[in-house]
Protein 1
Amino acid sequence: MADPSDLMRRVTRVLRARDPLEMLGALTADGGLPAARTRLYVGRATALEAFPPTAPGDDALAAAAREAVRTGKPRLVDGPEGRTLVVPLTVDDEVCGALGAALEPEGDGAGAGGAVPDGLALLAESCALGLWHQTRTGPLAAALEAAAAGVFAWDFSADNVFWDERTCAVYGVDPKRFDGRGDTFFALLHPEDVPVLQAAIAQVTEAAITPLGAGATGDPGRYRLQYRVIHPDDSVHHVTECGRVLLDDQGRPARALGVVYEAGADLPASGRGSGAEADRSRNSLLFTLTRALSKAVTVQDVTRVMTDLARPALGAENLLLGIMEGGHLEIVGESRIAPALEHLRVPAQDVMAFAATQEEPLFIEDLARHGEHGVPGLALVGELPSRSWVVLSLGSADHATGACLISFAGPRLFDAAERTFFTAVAVILTQTLERARLFDTQHQRATDLQQAMLPRRLPALPSLSAQSRYLPGTRGMRIGGDWYDVLPLDDGTAALVIGDVQGHDAHASAVMGQLRVALRACAESGLAPGALLGKVNRVLCDLDTDRFATCAYLVLSPADGVLRGARAGHPHPLRVRAESVSELELAGGPPLGVDPSARYPTTASLLDPLDTLLLFTDGLVERRDADIDVSVRAMMDGILDWSRGAGDIDLTALTDFLTLRDDPGRIDDVALLAVRRTS
């Protein structure tokens, strides 16, 4: 399933399947998923129907399917023939079934921690959409045929498009000659409708990536577009396109799936795409791009807006963004470049470096005629493909910020309106990029300060192994007061500390430093955990910092595993074993700094040699759209899936699993401490 073209063709067949058996056939036919080890489950957890019908030995798969449908999370099943990943089929947060597929031997790492290979994830999305339509609109294939509608799939990252025969007929393209490129679609558009559709695509993409609670309503990924295309006989056809933009696991637009059909009398034959409307559409696209860039905080945010929103909306083949550092241009963001165009990377950077010193954008309407432009670097490449480049100069007359190269397939004439549009984009992008660079610099300094206040390394203690991690926040300045500590005590025990000061600013970091000092001083006195937290609480109240802090403080004896601990408004630690994950319930009191008379009971427990103790701050689990208890439960399930069958828990692997995953939902900083006895 590594061939993108084959994958797109299979996706289309899945979407057009009239029933689950036909869908299963589309998944497994012609070198697809292994038929003997592929199962499609349709329905809800209490009544799942298996396709093909459940055979002897499928009980474990059926149980995994029910669990996947119940939890909405993938399940990994080990069997005599290998490993099978069971993926829930979800549309609009509604689970309609599950797909079980064998993992390739070389992909044994796939599925760890709930990871789903990209190809299988796309097939699962297609199955979910197909089943959704089957249950709500009747036989999908019959409906498409009756409407003379075709289906399409567009992979944004690879700019790979698949059309079925009916879609090709709608666009007037010979299916045998369609090259599967996004720019081919834009070339078919009526010239007056190009800016109209560019603006619409930008709005749809922006809506799809807008987080819930930040202006999104309903299902922002769904859309309906109307435009005109020109067939080879110069006839003009009105087209309606209905689809949905799907996001990847990082919340970035990954692909679009949908249907197209001729609109007929749905649209008037005139009055669309006039010069005035084209101008309004360009202004709308510029406004959408400006709005998206205004929300970009970091340089990485800026590159995502340009590669994920601007490039598809413009119908561009590639986009590169670079900034000037120490007199040299450094590429900070780019869309995927086809292998056949890799030899253009160096001249592209040379052209960008040259453009960065200019005051106006550089328009190269045909690379094959590069000699007319006098741009250094291009002449050294030899024969160049037919491409057109817009290279935006980012900066001012006395300061070069960087450059942005937008590449289009084939030669292209840029009229006065387009040149004005790209010049405006350069001005807006310059301002955004300079603001983002300033933020990144300030954020790095603040993060360095935060890191300097944390332990440089954990102490080496007899019979005790420990690993720690710290992650800065991902939104705004997001420096904060999260911290951890391991303190060796005179009696051979070790104090384990995790805490979180309210706020995300330098003040929070300063209060965190004061608390670390106070905790260390009190720990040396040998106080019980509850009594120690009571004393530190009074210290924080007396400091009158106007901040509170949550904290968990535990004392562990590595020799016999005796564990005593207390909490001040902090999440319970977790006890992790190979076959179970549970909360270590500690009696607690209010956060430190709230009530000077607060009391904190001490709880005693025992840590077995095979147990791993996991202390964390709420940034690891807290999400805007989820209850924290639900998020903790989800993390516990994820750890259990990751550790099942692993035997001894490796602390480095565990902390990496929890902190190295891309998680677009995380916004807060994170402190994590994992401890295990080695005696």
Note: The domain at 176-287 is CATH 2.10.70.100 (Complement Module; domain 1).
Protein 2
Amino acid sequence: MTIQIEQQIAKLKKSYTEDELESFVRLSDRWLRKNDNATFEAWADAMILQTLSLIDEEEPYWTFVAAQIYLEKLYDQFAMRREVSVKDVYKVFPEHLAHYTEAGLYHESLTTKYSEQELQELASYLDQSRDELFTYIGLKTLMDRYVVRDYTKTPVELPQERWMVIAMTLMQDETENRIEKVRESYWALSNLYMTVATPTLSNAGKTHGQLSSCFIDTVDDSLQSIYDTNTDVATLSKYGGGIGVYMGKIRSRGSSIKGFKGASSGVLPWIKQLNNTAVSVDQLGQRQGAIAVYLDVWHKDVFTFLDLRLNNGDERLRAHDIFTGLCLPDLFMETVEARGDWHLFDPHEVREVMGYSLEDFYDEKKGDGSFRTKYAECIANPLLSREVVPAIDIMKRIMRSQLETGVPFMFYRDEVNRMNPNKHEGMVYSSNLCTEIFQNMSATEFESITLEDDVIVTRRKPGDFVVCNLSSINLGRAVPAGVLERLIPVQVRMLDNVIALNTIPVKQAERTNLRYRGIGLGTFGWHHLLALKEIQWESEEAVEFADKLYEEIAYLTIRASNELASEKGAYPLFEGSDWHTGAYFDKRGYDSNKWNALRAAVAEKGMRNGYVMAVAPNSSTSILAGSTATIDPIFQKSYSEEKKDYKIPVTVPDLSPVTTWYYKSAYFIDQNWTIKQNAARARHIDQGISLNLYVQNTIKAKDLLALHMNAWASGVKTTYYVRSTSVELLECESCAS
């Protein structure tokens, strides 16, 4: 046995009782008897595997034992490479940065914008003890997927260095108390109180990639716009962005082209083209692209659209790699409820005959508004061709597809637009890949192509091409620690700085990012927090807690953006917004003294960000931070996390004889309670929530329909996947935060 092995066992004995380590010591002794001259690394590899095999619901602490052994192995490897002792492995951070910046792995700004003295000071803030906060799966996820690697794919960055590099990158251009702001950002990240979005986590401080999570484009009804969108989608997908595409303006199958009737092939071939792009243009070689396409429920191609991902039928009518979302007005849901007829139109014919685009309208009030007025005009006009079907038949096709494939996502467009704080500048047609981003959208219009001085010059009038900049609070750690008031201003500043720092290869997206300065501060670890507070999921107490907690998060987020506006200026389109007029606060019933004071401050100084909150799925980063995903209930208390090359046992966080009673599987929870919780928190979130519905594959159609009707009636703006026990679904990596 080497001295290192003895030291590691002694260290573990200081952290755990003799009874807790009994199995480990026995397994270690047996292995050492068989491998007398083994190295520390060989012993560590063997003991990690042995320790992982011991993880179960009765003894979840083994994940931290495995993580400690893995850490010591990492420290040993890095100390050898850096030619220092294990205890000094973090102390050479400035030299490490300089070496790998010169090698082209880090961006030069890390060493040119920070002085040698500042780098030494930042190195002194690295806290090695915070490495011990990781579970094994969290640590392995970080080391396998996010830290900097050299050209031989060997990791050259330790966990605390990744956090510090992210903090340094995002705060590099701050002019006042910059080092203190870096330190605060590092504090937030390294304590796992929050996570940044996957692109920021992966790319901050590196020489390639961009920092935003995902994007949304609007396709105009022209061949030029369709192909321009495909190019833009490919470009963004290449750099690691997930894409949402609204195709509701494209004419339907059988529509006319230049007066020739029946010439159009509809949306299907263009969706298939996007499907090929998703498969062909992978995200930095890590995974194929991810694209969600949205269509209106009154579009004539809606039935073809709903069948796109089905496993049977004509393969020429399928696009298995595209995720579908349906844009639903209140009137459709009312018609389903009344078992009435629904009229399907061609958007091109509506424009030609009626002189307006039906998709450009929404109901300004519940039960009344311009969409239903315009829709009634279309129905009444005999010159418009249409297909008339029972609304419930469309709903049946929706539910059939959801139970087989998990999609379409449901986008309740009227409620989204009614609550849009920037409706003075446009409207929201659809959402993103994960249904939590709602920002103003418009198509980029082709104007001309000319030859000037032997250079081909293309001119396009930019539309609003939405950009999502995301970050999430780890509720399971931040709320018990009582740090929200300190944490949220740090997060908002970090997100706002992403906007300035990001290099987006699509110019209209860059323009939109700067016009609205939209961010999406979200949360994960909701079920973790409920368990810690001993609150049952299916209870009024959970609903009231969601309402109270998210109101506090909203208050702190809006205040932080307002304070940033006072320091750096409001976003360019602030004037005339609901923030400016106070309508934002009226609609949500914010009338306490605290809220009224903030309302006055916003009216005076503005908001730095036009959009501020969104709750993303964050499945991968919640694993990294050792908590539960998003606002979802758990699948089960123990499971195996399966990736390409490994399978690791995992238990839910802080599992104990007390918390076990509060961890109920999603598939056995009445989803109406989940909807009720989300209706409560949705009031406080200006954008949206990735809300999954979990159902047994034996669910009756009337029960699934009742869930959808309840979600819509409750004011929920979207639902994400319908997760049936028989459906395997893609996790959105881009929005993970």
Note: The longest strand covers residues 445-452.
Protein 3
Amino acid sequence: MLPWLPFLAIAAVLALYLSQPLPLLAVRNAVFDQYQRWQPRVYRDAPVRIVDLDEQSLARIGQWPWPRTRVAELVERLQQAGAAAIVFDVLFAERDRTSPSALLRDTPLPPAVSAELARLPDNDEVLAGALRNGGVVLGFAAERGESSGELPASRFGSVLQGASPLPWLPVFRGTVAALPALQRAAAGNGSMTFLPDADGVVRRVPLFLRVGDTLLPSLVAEALRVGQGARSYRLRVDEDSGIEQVGVGAARIPTTASGEMWVHFTEHRSSRSLPAWQVLAGEAPASALAGAIVLIGTSAQGLQDLRFSPLGGIIPGVEVHAQALEQVLGGDYLTRPGWAMAVETVLVLLGGILLSLLALRSRALVSTLVGGAILLALSAAGWLAFARYQLLLDLFVPSLGLGVVFIVASIVRHMAAEREQRWVREAFSRYVSPNLVAHLMKNPGQLQLGGQRQQCSFVFTDLTGYTRLMESQPAEEAVGLLNDYLEGIIRIAFAHDGTLDRIVGDAVAIMFSAPVPQADHPARALACGQAIQRFTEDYAATLQARGTPFGLTRIGVHSGEVVVGNFGGSAIFDYRALGDPVNTASRLESLNQHIGTTLCVSAAIREHCPWAPMRAVGRVVLKGKSEPVAVFEPLRGEAADEPYDAAFALLEQDPAGALEAFEALHAARPDDGLVAFHVHRLRAGERGAQWAMTRK
């Protein structure tokens, strides 16, 4: 169960991410807001101005709503200044209560005054007359509840490319629009409605919305259409991914699936706005208004059109419209592509698998550093996509999910490592050197049991005169001498990272390249055998000097392919190697007693250790074998034994000359056991460098 936990965590993170719960969206939005705070849009002067019904204007002219005649005067001033479009972010849903007709209806007046008022034009008609001069967009409010009012008048056409946009648009059930006379006089009608997120922050502006089965434009969309003199909109809609783009005049606006555009906010700029009183007084610079889309709205707190901004402050709603228009006219779009969700999902999947494998298979420090680097790189990539390409990629929230996956995988790895370490300690504390145990603790994956083939090297030792030693010494003293002897051999084996295969009486078997493979196992085995040779000779000499009859140690070294594993079943645990190379190493150890040597190695060792000086013993058919084994005796010094090599070469070429050469060597080296062996064999009539052993 445990190894699958990281992948279950990946599945859980994916399911949570795809379900898009509100807390997850809140974190994503907070990250996007932080991006904007780090790098707000750079303000560039664009043909967009706000005529602000600010506190100062209200103080000078009077509280809102102003008489429609005053509003008409404002419109005429802007038309005279050459505004490309005049856009009202205010609603004229009711008749002007200061109109003459309203006064006549609601106020008792003298007949002469009433007659004079009756001759005056209606204020709403005055405003309608100003609107007819062109270029004016009125705002309407979209409502979720039922509304008895008629839909706003349409002044636009729409060209659809692809599927219908209606299923993707935000749905409203009604509208509150301007007076019909004003609508008929205006060049366009657009929705002033925002769709803030759950935290109240306005991050996107809708370009269209749906009321019933009717497509209605937003105030921003109508401002662009009228400001460019366009007649229609172009909507590109994909049946599966929703609205992709809205075209208005020369503008191509990338949108969300529901037809919204992301707003990349700038910090507040006073040059964006002109107070309404200044325009009415004729003091507004004409250059600031000529050719501009002019939005009329309010920043006065009492009129309650204030919105939360991603930059952290509160801004007037009319400024949100203005900033959206600036982006479109400047071609500076902030987008969250339709493929973003798919990319983020794939990153969660692949990143989760990668981090799981990293945590499960790498060392803790390495996996932590690499995993942390991957998570930081993802977050940095999200920021880079925003800062350089104005793309909103949510790579932070997936990073949080991947962090959870990594933690789960790390916990699984830690639990598995503890379990493996306990097993390794119990299984090998009696078999391998302490430094090898430490290596297995760090790399338990290199340990495999159950029987596998691999190349190994073996060192076999046997003490001569063991029976005589036990009979000549008190039992306690003999056991103590033997333990010291075995401890010295085992210490040497562990120093060369050998594995103690078994101890049988005074005999020791040492294995190399198991359980952990060692590329240089033949060299290790040779070095171990030579070190044991030196130790045992010194140990025997010390005891013999004290009068204790301690014999010599015979050593055999061989290398080959064996089966290594856990043998014995559940009743008894025995980790060892099985195969012909094990028997060959044992036979080489026994061969020493017949040829006058204490250390014999095979050609397999010789081939892997060409630097080690050795002299050939011969090709020996060992007891129980059918094929000969080339046997060598390692030399103690660094130089080759050239006289011996020359004599040995004559064994095949000139048997008579070989006998003469070996007899000369024997005379010079009476203590050289291998030379004496060859002399004895040649004198007995044997020829060549190959012979067979009939005894172990």
Note: The longest strand covers residues 553-567.
